[in-house]
Amino acid sequence: GASQGLHALLEERIHNYREAAASAKEAGEAAKARRCERGLKTLESQLASVRRGRKINEDEIPPPVALGKRPLAPQEPANRSPETDPPAPPALESDPDPRALLSSRQREYKVAALSAKRAGELDRARELMRIGKRFGAVLEALEKGQPVDLSAMPPAPEDLKPQQASQAPTAPSVIPPAVERVQPVMAPDVPATPVAPTESQTVLDALQQRLNKYREAGIQARSGGDERKARMHERIAKQYQDAIRAHRAGRKVNFAELPVPPGFPPIPGLESTMGVEEDAVAATLAAAEKLASAEDSAPADKDEDEGEPPAQAPVAKKPARPTVPSSQRLPEPRASSSKESPSPSVREQLALLEARKLQYQRAALQAKRSQDLEQAKAYLRVAKCLEAQIIQARSGRPIDLSKVPSPLTDEEGDFILIHHEDLRLSQKAEEVYAQLQKMLLEQQEKCLLFSKQFMHQGNVAETTRFEKLAQDRKKQLEILQLAQAQGLDPPTHHFELKTFQTVRIFSELNSTEMHLIIVRGMNLPAPPGVTPDDLDAFVRFEFHYPNSDQAQKSKTAVVKNTNSPEFDQLFKLNINRNHRGFKRVIQSKGIKFEIFHKGSFFRSDKLVGTAHLKLERLENECEIREIVEVLDGRKPTGGKLEVKVRLREPLSGQDVQMVTENWLVLEPRGL
């Protein structure tokens, strides 16, 4: 029964939108016709989903629309006899207490609107609230001593049919002293236009006509004692003055922000720009709805869509440029030619940003379906930031690709490089599946890491390439997991050698810091009277930057009772990459290490050896990993010290590395 009622509601709403679209086309309202057609498409897709037995969100059903004004009946001759005129409606002066009657009726509409909202009838609630608000203007006029007419007062809320939303009654009207016929109180606060103005030939003439009209309206309102309306018309006239000056100077004018007096034709050449903002919003919603419906109907309509090409990702269409005659062409910015033909690098950046934005939009839609609204909002915020970067790129401004959000993954983090040359898969199905999944996951993480490194370097082509490889690894992993869940045998597979040229970078480091890691000591010498197993070693270092007097110093913790201690301790050193003193230390001094045996309460620490690490390789590499000799003066002691130094990126150039991998390939015949 619920589905039948929803089916009937959608059919009735479709009929309403078809009539509204036809009425708008007859009246020449192109923007309204387009909105009705978009709502009609949404209703038809919802009706198709209901017929297939799927559930839809009733809050997303487009509301009913007004059918527009009917053609006016021909006016009667002006010289008809006064006997045939209908009697004038009685004024409210004969009513003993009109204020109480209006206040009571207004309160009835507010209570009815609140009840309709609690019952879920949002359209009727809005309609009742709009009617109730009109009583306020009538009460205000009554307090000023103006006569009002109650002949057009809306009936009680229970007598008002919800179907008459398009023909909702108006509030009682105020009778101005100088007008014999009744003027509606809730008419828009714009000057009345009894005679339609002639259509302008140029944009400047149209703006001047509107300016003159609002000036006249302001003068009339001030002469009638209505200061509020006079100030409003003067503000609008000021807007038109600014628009005329901007148009004459060749600057861009936003005509959508300028109010239009009733009866005035559109500005020449700007008919197609009406409703552009609403069209963009509706296009975004329609794109999201299409994306959702396409993903929902993919399993059910697989056979029907098998012969059709795959649907492309929804992209919001740009509004059509208004067709203006050559003599009336609007001035355009000079930079438009550069926007029409962006450079190849800009095109690559735009493609990357739009693909990343679409990925976050899909993730937001998936999170919303999973009832994870907070995650969906977070994804949408990231997509909004990407939209701002897309606009910035299209305008020709540079983009910092290091600030572009990373692609969405199931799990991110560091990984250990594992080679699989000598790996032999087990014959057991579960072990084979586990090993294949492990290799695919490692390769996916490796591609994501390479993509992030190239992103920081601003290399869009390589970033996109490794992102596609990561997506391929993820898809292969999903296929493998599906086959295992279905109880199938492991797929046949083979390995292919792939060589990648990568750029090494430590993106987690700042450009103003250098990391020193003292890893371990090996076979360190012991001082006289101490056996190697009783050595309590620690390492002290000095880095002579910014100068020798202010050298950065520190030491490791003490590792007792071994001559091969594992320190694995990190120290952060402050640097300035562009400072000449820093480059001099890198080229000549390096880092000095001293290894000590920890003394007791009565004995001081004993120096057992020194070591020195050169840093020249940081010019072209971002990491130095060395095992340096431990010396006693200039004499080798046989001990060694393993240390590492890292920068965010090399001081000059790039740390390019060639990586060769055994690439796992699953053969589709095995699935």
UniProtKB/TrEMBL annotation:
GO terms for molecular function: DNA-binding transcription repressor activity, RNA polymerase II-specific. InterPro entries: C2_dom (IPR000008), C2_domain_sf (IPR035892), C2_Freud (IPR037772), CC2D1A/B (IPR039725), CC2D1A/B_DM14 (IPR006608). Residues 489-628 form the C2 domain. The keyword Coiled coil applies. Keywords: Coiled coil. The keyword NAD does not apply. Residues 333-345 have a biased composition (Low complexity). SUPFAM superfamilies: C2 domain (Calcium/lipid-binding domain, CaLB). Residues 49-118, 151-171, 289-346 are annotated as: Disordered. Interacts with CHMP4B. Belongs to the CC2D1 family. Transcription factor that binds specifically to the DRE (dual repressor element) and represses HTR1A gene transcription in neuronal cells. This is Coiled-coil and C2 domain-containing protein 1B. It comes from Pan troglodytes (Chimpanzee).
